[in-house]
Amino acid sequence: MATETLTVGSMFSGIGLLEQGLRTGFRRQGIELEVIWQVEIDRACHPVLRRHFPNAKLYEDVNDERLETLPKTDIIAFGFPCQDISVAGQGAGLSGERSGLFFRAWQVSMLVEPKYIIMENVAALLGRGLDQVAATVAESGYNLEWTTLSAADCGAPHRRKRWWGVAYPRE
Fold first, then answer.
1. Active-site entry in 82, 108, 133, 144
2. Is 82 a catalytic residue?
3. What is the pTM of this model?
4. Which residue has the higher pLDDT, 88 or 9?
5. Which CATH topology does 4-120 take?
6. What is the DSSP letter of 128?
């Protein structure tokens, strides 16, 4: 049986845990993922990304103008910064400098025209910006389905809750 392969681009990649998790989940469904580009500003993460994703083009800044011409991908994945959303933060929400990078990530996503956009953040997004995320997604012609999951739901020994969203074109 031939295995389907989907291409992936990621932003705020960290050390690639989101991409690795997606690879594992999709592989269990008979689908391979090929990460073709990543964006991560923390240079300390770059050696890890290069080791696990040696063929992916690596960019440092989500505001880099070169992202305006990224190759098309089937999936874009990003866990945008949560500092302004988290209950441990100042509560600025998406108007904050860091968490507001959601809007730039969404802009880049729309240029790439993916089939799916997978997003992750803290569960506090429910009261500190989900309305803006949903409105932005809808205004772009995408549907959004979302849920929150505890880390314990996935076998981790703690209950840290995360928000997960999947956006896809309305057609």
1. 82
2. yes
3. 0.94
4. 9
5. Rossmann fold (3.40.50)
6. T
